[in-house]
């Protein structure tokens, strides 16, 4: 495909008729609904993309091909955008110039789709090379905005709104050759367009200004009064999409620039109360975000207090299911109906993380669509945490009235009231406490309500009171209530409705975490219900049973590792494994990651695999060596290695967590592929993207340490490679996850403990930063093992720590108490050894440089 222009510059390029016809034909075929072989067409388009001027053809078709449908022109434009994104750097400058020159007139095209696609391509160029590479663009945009031609104005605003959304900082930067920043020219024009009679221009100009609230360029700060006046004028705009953006502006301002709104706060709150009941759900949803934003910004509660009697009823009203809520349809799902592939939405399961920082568990939400109902409940939750019991006098009469509403038609009100009780379960716990026994007694029968959604929300609300339910078991009444809740949730786990199954399983997992050893006497009945659920559930909810089994193993620990319980638990799990074909998507977690092949990148599979890996980790922790029967009957080791190498970050994170857990309880099964596991884990620490993949690196680092203390000298081949990766983490901890730094220090110590002869020759390079990290770690067995490594290294190479002695003393002083007598004695020997080595006042000089509290701590080591 050659151009007929003979290389005479961008302006001279002309397409050949034959090439033009062929590419248009392919684009038409690709879009035809009956087209059979899309992959063949795609391959041909990819073949053409090898030619240097293929993108010129696409630009020509998009911009000026006569007699071609808008759909084909748009398809050419979107393909061009993708090519610019992927191959801009290899595109000849003359071709770039040609494409840009064709795009600019498209901003004024008669067809809105062409204008919009042009805006998308222009924004892509700006994302890649900024404004500097396209000086004509700014002039063209200003000219279009000032033209008074609606098409040109809309086209320019479309491009600008996309630039403001994707790369707002580009317009707020100094550009060589320009006397002022581009945003200084555009912002006054945006504010002017707030008054346009054209809805699209009002919407695009407002969304563009909103993008600068966070950046707050000088020109916006100086025009703030005009911006706020504009917002108050647009507050009553007839177009819901404009009112939604007004609400979004106030939400952003309260989050990051609350001082600006302070003089107008009463008016803003009054407006938000009004639009929280807007006829458009999208506007009401955006308005509802304001209450959460206000609470999270920790602004003075008194500004909101007087509005609570009006706000709380609105929130409660909006917490009822809307008539068109998709959950109302989904709630009718029969539990025996097999799941369709499209039902298998990913569960937002948070992967296991080994470290000192707990990852906060999100409440399991049943459908992952954010809507007015959920936003209202979240706002009520936050308000209850800010105002506590003072919201109860307003709220509880409404809740009680809704709960006592009878008749089938009032079920949505009853359901919303149960949701409200759960939402305030944390913030208002003091005021609710005297009545909790009654509230729980009221909720237990609702687990058997005729309406599915009342049964499912009752599960969730009861789970919010788990701590109280478990605390009450010390007296007979509380013990009986705990039994009723436990049995009620187990009963609902076997509900015929999928939604209720899911809610009950999630609520049970929450109760498990609180109850812990309280569950031990009831393990028999719990396991029987879990196994019944295991046999009853369809694919989607099976994952939650896996989670519940894993949480149970975590909660009761070694209690589970008894023949009676293993006889209930193991046969169904092993039977499930033996039933499987290699292509089965529902692979049992013990081999759940079995489905790691070309489809592993799909979101459902990824979530499923992560869930499976985490169940196995829970079982490994709970069953201990008892998990060996499962591991030995599967090809888990090979599959786990594949997971450790997977492209998906979440899968690797959970895989390395499981690797560490298996290293603890059955390392013998990992030995045949030990070298590969260690090499793969070491690679996670040697990456330029360490900050982005910190959780993976953290778990890989922890797993290496766990392996080291189990396989001893067999770790030697990779010991120095790992040390060389850990040292930079300790030397440059800025911005890194605290757990990664701690685990790096512990793993380095464990390697030094098992291979002191390999690690100690290099100790002077890392002693200082390593000791600083060790001194930050709390007392525990892992810290003990790290200090055993320190002592082993010092014995092997005493001079290696001389220059870092002060830091070593501080690390030793960080112990509250070394419980191991053996380690305590080793530390004493180390300190006495240096005291004898340092003559002529050198030891005293070292001691004098320590802070008094450090010297006091060292007294227990008799130095």
Quote the distance from N terminus to C terminus.
Answer: 84 Å
Which regions are unreliable across 5 or more consecutive residues at pLDDT < 50? 2-10, 344-351, 356-367, 580-604
- Proportion of strand residues: under 5%
Choose one word for the global shape.
globular
Tally of separate helices = 47
Number of DSSP-assigned strands? 0
Largest sheet: none
User: How does the helix and strand content classify structurally?
Assistant: mainly alpha
Summed over residues and divided by their number, the pLDDT gives a mean of 86
- The Rg value, from CA coordinates, equals 33 Å
User: Considering DSSP H and I runs of 4 or more, what fraction of the residues is helical?
Assistant: 55-70%
Subcellular location: Cytoplasm; Nucleus
GO molecular function, one term: small GTPase binding
InterPro entries: ARM-like (IPR011989), ARM-type_fold (IPR016024), Importin-beta_N (IPR001494), Importin_beta (IPR040122)
GO biological process, one term: protein import into nucleus
């Amino acid at each position: 495909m050659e151009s007929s222009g003979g290389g005479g510059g961008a302006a001279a390029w002309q397409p050949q008729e034959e090439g033009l016809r062929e590419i248009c034909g392919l684009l038409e075929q690709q879009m035809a609904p009956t087209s059979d072989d899309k992959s063949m067409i795609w391959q041909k388009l990819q073949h053409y993309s090898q030619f240097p001027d293929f993108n010129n053809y696409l630009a020509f078709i998009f911009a000026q091909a006569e007699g071609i449908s808008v759909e084909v022109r748009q398809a050419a434009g979107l393909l061009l955008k993708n090519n610019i994104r992927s191959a801009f750097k290899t595109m000849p400058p003359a071709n770039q110039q040609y494409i840009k020159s064709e795009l600019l007139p498209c901003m004024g095209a008669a067809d809105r789709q062409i204008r919009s696609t042009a805006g998308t391509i222009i924004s892509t160029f700006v994302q890649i090379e900024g404004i500097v590479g396209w000086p004509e663009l700014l002039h063209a945009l200003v000219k279009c905005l000032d033209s008074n031609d609606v098409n040109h104005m809309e086209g320019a605003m479309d491009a600008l709104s996309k630039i403001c959304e994707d790369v707002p900082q580009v317009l707020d930067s100094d550009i060589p050759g320009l006397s002022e920043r581009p945003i200084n020219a555009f912002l006054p024009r945006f504010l002017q367009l707030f008054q346009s009679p054209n809805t699209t221009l009002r919407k695009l100009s407002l969304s563009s200004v909103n993008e600068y609230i966070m950046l707050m360029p000088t020109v916006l700060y100086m025009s703030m009064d005009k911006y706020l006046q504009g917002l108050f004028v647009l507050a009553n705009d007839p177009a819901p999409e404009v009112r939604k953006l007004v609400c979004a502006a106030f939400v952003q301002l309260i989050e990051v620039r609350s001082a600006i709104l302070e003089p107008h706060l009463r008016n803003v709150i009054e407006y938000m109360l009004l639009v929280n009941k807007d006829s458009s759900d999208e506007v009401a949803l955006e308005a509802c975000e304001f209450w959460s934003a206000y609470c999270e910004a920790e602004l003075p509660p008194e500004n909101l207090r007087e509005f609570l009697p009006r706000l709380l009823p609105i929130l409660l009203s909006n917490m009822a299911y809307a008539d068109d809520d998709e959950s109302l349809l989904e709630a009718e799902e029969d539990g025996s109906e097999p799941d369709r592939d499209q039902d298998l939405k990913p569960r937002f399961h948070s992967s296991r993380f080994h470290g000192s920082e707990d990852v906060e568990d999100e409440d399991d939400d049943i459908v992952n669509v954010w809507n007015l109902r959920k936003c209202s409940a979240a706002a009520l939750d936050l308000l209850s945490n800010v105002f506590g019991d003072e919201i109860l006098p307003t709220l509880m009469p409404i809740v009680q009235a809704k709960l006592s509403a009878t008749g089938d038609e009032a079920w949505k009100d009853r359901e919303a009231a149960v949701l409200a009780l759960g939402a305030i379960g944390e913030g208002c716990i003091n005021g609710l406490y005297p009545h909790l026994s009654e509230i729980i007694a009221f909720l237990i029968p609702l687990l058997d309500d005729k309406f599915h959604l009342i049964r499912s929300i009752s599960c969730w609300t009861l789970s919010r009171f788990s701590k109280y339910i478990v605390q009450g078991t010390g007296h007979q009444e509380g013990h009986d209530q705990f039994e009723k809740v436990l049995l009620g949730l187990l009963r609902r786990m076997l509900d015929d409705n999928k939604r209720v199954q899911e809610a009950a399983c999630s609520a049970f997992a929450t109760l498990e975490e609180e109850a812990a050893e309280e569950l031990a006497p009831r393990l028999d009945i719990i396991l029987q219900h879990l196994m019944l659920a295991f046999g009853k559930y369809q694919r989607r909810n099976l994952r939650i049973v896996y989670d519940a089994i894993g949480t149970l193993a975590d909660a009761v620990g070694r209690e589970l590792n008894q023949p009676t319980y293993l006889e209930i638990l193991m046969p169904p799990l092993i039977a499930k494994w033996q039933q499987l074909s290699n292509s089965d998507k529902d692979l049992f977690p013990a081999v759940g990651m079995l489905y790691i092949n070309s489809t592993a990148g799909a979101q459902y599979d990824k979530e499923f695999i992560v869930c499976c890996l985490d169940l196995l980790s829970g079982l490994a922790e709970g069953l201990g060596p008892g998990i060996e029967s499962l591991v030995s009957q599967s090809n888990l080791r090979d599959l786990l290695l594949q997971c450790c190498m997977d492209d998906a970050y979440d899968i690797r994170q959970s895989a390395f967590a499981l690797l560490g857990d298996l290293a603890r309880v059955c390392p013998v099964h990992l030995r045949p592929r030990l070298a590969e596991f260690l090499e793969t884990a070491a690679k996670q620490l040697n990456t330029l993207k360490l900050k982005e993949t910190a959780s993976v690196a953290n778990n890989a680092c922890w797993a290496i340490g766990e392996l080291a203390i189990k396989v001893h000298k067999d770790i030697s081949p990779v010991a120095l490679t790992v040390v060389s990766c850990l040292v930079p983490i300790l030397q440059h901890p800025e911005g890194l996850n605290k757990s990664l730094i701690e685990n790096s220090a512990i793993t380095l110590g464990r390697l030094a403990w098992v291979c002191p002869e390999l690690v100690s020759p290099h100790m002077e390079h890392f002693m200082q930063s390593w000791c600083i990290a060790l001194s930050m770690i709390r007392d525990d067995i892992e810290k003990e093992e790290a200090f055993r490594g320190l002592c082993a290294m010092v014995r092997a190479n005493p001079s290696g720590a001389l220059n870092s002695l002060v830091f070593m003393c501080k690390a030793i002083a960080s112990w509250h108490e070394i419980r191991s007598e053996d380690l305590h004695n080793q530390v004493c020997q180390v300190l006495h050894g240096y005291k004898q080595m340092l003559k002529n006042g050198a030891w005293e000089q070292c001691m004098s440089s320590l802070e008094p509290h450090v010297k006091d701590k060292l007294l227990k080591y008799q130095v």
